[in-house]
Amino acid sequence: MMNFVFSELSGSKDNFSIERFLYSKGILCVAGCDEAGRGPLAGPVVAACVVLPTDCEHSSFVDSKILTHCKRLELCSRLQEIGAAFGIGIVSEQKIDEINILQGSLLAMKRAVRNLKGPAPEFILVDGKCTIPLLTPQAPLVRGESKSSSIAAASILAKVERDRIMVEYHHQFPVYNFLKNKGYPTLEHRKAIQINGICPIHRKTFRGVKEHVE
What we know:
Number of strands: 5
CATH topology: Nucleotidyltransferase, domain 5
Helix content: 40-55%
Distance between the termini: 53 Å
């Protein structure tokens, strides 16, 4: 029944309608969870969990992929200004190679929930098809960033945090230009691997990297 209601609500122009529905059913704390960095050849996967105040301007929080870097930074600052509760979870490239990227993403989201500053969520909206390995009631939402402002806020926070990490790695490994590509398999990045080999933060089980593992 609840999945049916979610499918009906997800078509609403109000991107807080699912959260509002859950609150109307007596749930006291609803969180959104998303990750950034499933596709890159290098660096960690980073997840965020966010609980938005019910009285904030929810429509401001949209899918991070359609926002500029400056706008994402602005919205991250706004999350702090409005008193949103949030947590970050990070899974290293070594762990991704060990357990695969899907399990790494779910682990990152689990850590983000565990690191949430504030009351534990009673219900979690998760971007994608899978749920997080937690006991907390959850609902996966495919393309959740466009259906839930809580998930959208999490996508923004996760993207900003992962970009920050990759900028730091750029200074350690400048030949790959992580400052620009953030570890994604751009033509420039792939050519840099062919010329220079791989570095410690490359994901050794990913195609485009594993061929260069000695």
